Amino acid sequence: NSIYQLLQRCLEVLRREFSELKTVMADQLMYVKEDLILPHHYTFYDFIVTKARGKSGPLFTFDVHDDIRMVHDASVETEESHAGKVLL
Length: 88
Hints:
The chain is α+β, with helices and mostly antiparallel strands. It has one domain (3-62, 76-87). It contains 2 helices and 5 strands. The chain has helices at 3-15, 44-49; strands spanning 30-33, 36-38, 53-54, 57-58, 85-87. The strands form 2 sheets. It has a 3-stranded antiparallel β-sheet, with helices on one face. A hairpin with a 2-residue loop joins strand 3 and strand 4. The longest helix has 13 residues, at 3-15. The radius of gyration is 16 Å and the shape is elongated.
């Protein structure tokens, strides 16, 4: 699925709660992951296969890791993936 398809689906879901989005098109939305604005024409597969990285680590990870609690250090890159944001 492409980023554009994700944005279309998000818009369908959000329109139920926010009537202000009635006139908004998916072209007007942005998907931001980590510190990157992801273009509409890319697919999630593209980012996963190329192991795309953001400022703090990989954009998408689906690996299983043991839950090891440590003191967090901002200077150390983590292997965690954070939620993306849909913006207007």
